[in-house]
Batch of 2 targets.
Target 1
Amino acid sequence: MSGLVELLRDYTIQNVAIGAALLGVISGVLGSFAVLRRQSLLGDALSHAALPGICLGFIVAGTRDLGSILAGALTTGALAALVVLLLTRKSRLKTDAALGIALSVFFALGVVLLTRIQGSANASQGGLESFLFGQAAALLRGDLWVMGGITLAALTVTALVWKEFKLVTFDPVFAASLGLPVAALEVALTVMIALAVVVGLQMVGVVLMAAMVIAPAVAARQWTRTLGGMVVLAALIGMACGMAGALVSATSPGLATGPLIVLAASAVVLVSLFLAPGRGLLWEAAKRRTERRRLLHRRARGEA
Amino acid sequence: MLEAFFNDAPVMIMLTGALVGIAAAMLGTFLVLRGSSMLSDAISHSIVLGIVVVWLVTFQQSGPVQIIGAALTGVLTVFLTELLAGTRRVKTDAAIGLVFPVLFSIGVLLINLYARDVHIDQHTVLLGEIGFVWLDTVDLGGYPVPLALLSMGAMTVINVLFVALFYKELKLATFDAALAKALGFAPGLLFYALLMLTSATAVAAFDAVGAVLFIAFVIVPPSAAYLLTDRLWLMLLLGAAIAVLSSLSGFHLAEAWNVSIGGMMAVMTGVFLALAFLFGPRYGLIAQEIRRRGRRRANASRTLAVHLYNHEGGPDQAEENVTRALRAHLRWEEARARRVLLDSLDRGLVVREGDLLRLTPKGRAIAREILEPWRQEAAGA
């Protein structure tokens, strides 16, 4: 116990834990909508597509300034979402191909820009690659304010247009018939996922961001039937997994934060799939067993 | 002569890139058509785990053991994804996004814990460095052949053979899995074989282009080809051709701008896709727009023909069948009315007689086709 208290006193670990908690909250909330709208892999595509934006933000600012880097990431992420939309609406390609195209081509562009920056031998480019895999320990207190601000903004927007988001998620056709701006709301939801990605880049990196969007939401879905419950639960699960991953990684230098957070969230998914009341696989197996037994009893008594 | 060929670094690099492209296009074509493109994303990330585990067990960084290990990891990824989706608690796309990050995470942690000082860092796995392929060579018949070229060449041959041998079965399984099953082929087995080859190719390619850029080669050239043709064999050929062109142009641009060669090759696949998307002869954006305009113009001419036919020989003919009336009665703006009229004159549907517009027999036939279709049928019968 005293070891834990000591861990929590450490300045870097505090930063990492708070950052991970923020990421858990925003990705849990926005991931819920993404998973319900069957856009689970959009987070994956957008996080890969953030790489060229990170580089552009760096080039424009001339230094590793988090604000401009995140603005760049948000821009190219949104652009990639637009490419996905354009390809699926205006060509015969399906969503999976459109996602794969946006993901790989944008990422390749990022790699090209990254080598361009490295070629120009700018001394302050160190740390830019940390966005690829996430480097939670490099998190500064100032970065936390930026991440917190983005999270707060996303949560506020979600609360304000809650009813509209809900309707668009479950029944876009009905929403359109009510006169709601469905396209604008869908764009808003997509941009918000890009926001969550942006918060997660430094924590878990572009590759593992996909899991952060999906895992808390899928886990929460097993325990509740209402959207409100799912969103709140996903935020809590995301936060808990974030902090757990951050604290465990602090115990040993070989344990990277991002993978641990993802593994924690995935473990919660597994537990939820088996144990959640009503939907859990174990409950289903138990129910099937009792039913089979009842049938056998009946047959034995000659009723069937 | 051959010695000079193998010592020519640019040629070796471009050749490796082209082989990655051809090998990937063979498999990618079927993945794109099946709607499982994102499985290549999952596989190329999760093979990191396979590579680390094989390295920890055998201390071999490449070679056949690695390729088999990767193939098994790929199968594991797909198997776990299908298992998860099979519970019906998770949608397929979410299942993909849950499985590969877990495998990737375990792989990264294993690298960090046990393989720190080895050459396989996560960085190389993700990005690759095709520019160095000519450094790592093996002696083959007295010639220094790059290792990456050798393994990519082998994978390309295997993939091309696989597609050539099972062409009919793959085609059937892709377009009509139910029929393939009914006829006694095993579409599921074929699909697993396809994904095993994808993983094996990914491992052979990751030294050269890395995991993420490999996805570009799997998905983008076949997608571009899909925008250009309806024929499967042509799609395979075009996909391979686009991949080769991307490798060649990507290499030269990367040299000119001093940037990542693999990255530039992948960007070029995107450029070719954009070209196909815009200028494709049948499904391209511009072709679609031209067709749409053509239809709209034909419709406008038809409207005019119907209008004229309705009033032809009637009491208000002098009032209705004149240019002025088009504006008032069809509510067309002047510019549009003039355009449609000129168009119809050009197409020989209408002739002018002083002020009056008169239908030609061709124009009358069009109007009748719309207003009195039964007459056409009678005339035809």
Note: Chain A has 13 helices and no strands.
Target 2
Amino acid sequence: MRYHPLSDVDRKAMLATIGVQDSAALYAPAPASTLIDAPLDLPRHKSEIEVERALRKLAARNVAAGSVPFFIGAGAYRHHVPATVDHLIQRSEFLTSYTPYQPEISQGTLQTLFEFQTQVALLTGMEVANASMYDGSTGTAEAVLMAHRLTGRRKALLSGGLHPQYAEVVRTISRLAEDSVADMPPDVDCVEDLIARIDDTLSCVVVQTPDFFGHLRDLTPIADACHRHGALLVAVFTEAVSLGLLTPPGAMGADIVVGEGQSIGNTLNFGGPYVGLFATRQEFVRQMPGRVAGESVDADGRRAFVLTLSTREQHIRRDKATSNICTNSGLCALAFTIHLTLLGEAGLTRLARLNHANAVALADMLAQAPGIEVLNQSFFNEFTLRLPCDAAALVERMAAKGVLAGVPVSRLLPDAGLDDLLVVASTETNTPQDRAAFVSALKESL
Amino acid sequence: MTGLRFTKDHEYLRIEGDTAVVGITDFAQQQLGDIVFVDLPKVGKKVTKGSELAVIESVKAASEVYAPVTGEVIEVNAELGEKPALVNESPLDGGWLVKLRVATPDETASLMDEDGYASFLKTL
């Protein structure tokens, strides 16, 4: 259809079709107070260059991530991404490829997905991984649904250390599926007794490590308790770099490991697109959502890649699909794979150490500041501060001084009475100067 | 091949004592093509005639196998986990799917016998 503004004739025809006299009669049911009776007071049209100027002025009011000392995390992390990553993903073969419907033709895409899965399985300590979910939060919801399918039970227990938005996504999906969710209250100190809550009605327990407040958790006793009751342990992470240093969830008995891959290869992207990582045990592979790229040989015996176990509705399982995930974050997964390949195993460990060291240095400095309490006994690159004041207001005051200090817990848990808590993340991008700026802005803003 | 009964959905049933061996017919496996996975029910599952008993996944599609009669699953063919292709190779023998304890023996009477099924196939 070509676009033309409506003419009076069009309007008359439409009104006649629905059987009203004029547009006043059309809007008659709406209360008069909600109707605008005068032309909108909008500025006249502007030229392109004028619009550009106006928008640039507006954009300059933002404090951009790379422009000031930056300590924001809570599920989205600023890391250095080598220029090579961006260069390679922009190759048109990768950039323009959509979900492979005739997958065997897209050998390059399939091979990178295969490498991606291999990396995710190695990182998480699991046997199989799929070829990327949308992001960590929806991946977590998919893990819960998978646990329901595997156990025949329909109730999940969510740890109070789970990222609040991840918990919300699980609750939303569960509501639609009429499954039930048991929530633990937000766990600031990492002392919640999940094990006491595990019984034979649960399909799974969902635990994050490092958790939303930055605490590291030993999943082993929780996994044992789950297995005693026939439930599965779903282990979640929001910071993939942590896997370069910490015991992988698979080694602690997790049955399904899900997390966010944004930290590796991907920038903050204004909150998305991100890339979900999803791994499990071989015995559960048939109930895994999404799809798996596999290695095979072609008619001439040469190494070739195929899409196998495509348990999605677009492929052979159709209405029997394990999930309705319809595409994946393929380009983000590719960026992840390229970055991780460039780092290598030793490089990832070094990067993780650098993150941890920077965060420890910052926490040590902050612990000296009067009135500030660092709540964590242990952490990776993120920890929680208890402040003598409202965290959200403090963050605003520090932003005005050119430091983005972190995420106030009240922003994600507005009604939890945790207004004095601030989640602070530090990565390899933070310099000693950044830390000094943080401490000095904090002292001036308290 | 005596004592075999068939459904219009191409399942077969073979009475062995008080149990019935259930699988899909040779015609069905040919139609499906290479079978890559068989999703079998748990032992102890109770099924009613016509309800979903198993899912067979071939390279073309995933298809339901319906229970030919009402009963309880008392054994599943565990060998199919490693070798789903047995369904292609010998659907009536090594490629059987489940054994049912038949709840209402009368139901088998309504199923086609071998000649009936052969005539039915000609109408397709």
Note: The longest strand of chain A covers residues 232-237.
